[in-house]
Amino acid sequence: MVILFLTTAQYDNQVSMKKRICGIQQMGIGVPNVEEAWSWYRRNFGVDVRIFEEAAEAPLMIDYTGGKVHSRTATLALSMDGGGGFEIWQFTSRTTEKAPFELQLGDYGMIACKIKSRDVNASYENMLKNGVASLSKVSKTPDNKDHFFVKGPNGNIFEVDRIIGLVFSYKTPFTLWGCGRVYYWCF
Q1: Residues whose CB is less than 8 angstroms from the CB of residue 40 and which lie 6 or more positions away in sequence, other chains included
Q2: Rounded-to-integer distance, Cα 163 and Cα 147, Å
Q3: Are 135 and 150 in contact (CB under 8 A)?
Q4: Going by C-beta distance under 8 Å and a sequence separation of 6 or more, which residues neighbour residue 118?
Q5: Dihedral in degrees, nearest 10, Cα atoms 154, 84, 185, 27
Q6: In whole angstroms, what is the distance from residue 74 CA to residue 96 CA?
Q7: Rounded CA separation 157/20 (Å)
Q8: pLDDT in tens, 78-96
Q9: Rounded to two decimals, what is the model's pTM?
Q10: Among 49, 50, 52, CA closest to 79
Q11: Around Cβ 187, how many Cβ atoms within 10 Å?
């Protein structure tokens, strides 16, 4: 038997060597109609740059599709303000269906996309003006940042909170009311 004694610094180094999520390139958002959903995401989140659009089989999704490979179409869209992308996809080999239950925090997969805003209150007002379904009013996070939750047109949940300490390098029309950078966290 080997017994290791580690200093705090050595322990911290060992812990930091483990795999962990440091960032997410894009969030896959399954929808029944890509074009309708992307129109909504352009209008409300500013993801208006199409990086690609493709149709193909999706063998890497087999864990989520009942053990069967299905075909799908996908569009990757970004904001010129930066942040991650929205991979908006729909099945083409079957009908896209919502989960037969209400999603809860802790369920399998990602439950909400986090969207960063320069002005959370202006973003909230703009979304209300656009008819977006609000799940909460603007309130404070535990670290005292303004935030709110909304539901997209297909029931996907988004949290909008205040961006702190990041510089936007490209000014888009969305800088007037806030949304642009897209960050994702798994709750």
Answers
A1: 152, 153
A2: 10
A3: yes
A4: 162, 163, 168, 175, 178, 180
A5: 40
A6: 13
A7: 23
A8: 887 777 788 899 999 998 8
A9: 0.73
A10: 49
A11: 12
Separate counts of helices (H) and strands (E) for the chain: 3, 10
Phi and psi angles of residue 134, each rounded to the nearest 5 degrees, phi first: -85, 135
Per-residue tokens: 183:
């960050």
pLDDT(48) > 80: yes
Say which amino acid occupies 108.
Answer: Y
Nearest to 81, CA basis, from 52, 53, 129, 119? 119
CA 29, CA 156: separation in Å to the nearest integer?
A: 8
How many whole angstroms separate alpha carbon 109 and alpha carbon 117? 24
Q: Which domains does the chain have, with CATH numbers?
A: 26-99+107-184 (3.10.180.10)
- Alpha helices, H only, 1-151: 8-16, 34-45, 120-129
Is it the case that residue 175 has pLDDT exceeding 60? no
Residues 114/184, Cβ–Cβ less than 8 Å: yes
Residue 74 is encoded by which pair of tokens?
């996908």
Strands 85-91 and 71-78: antiparallel
- Tens-digit pLDDT profile for residues 124-164: 999 999 999 999 999 998 989 899 999 988 888 888 888 76
Indicate the SS3 state at residue 30: strand
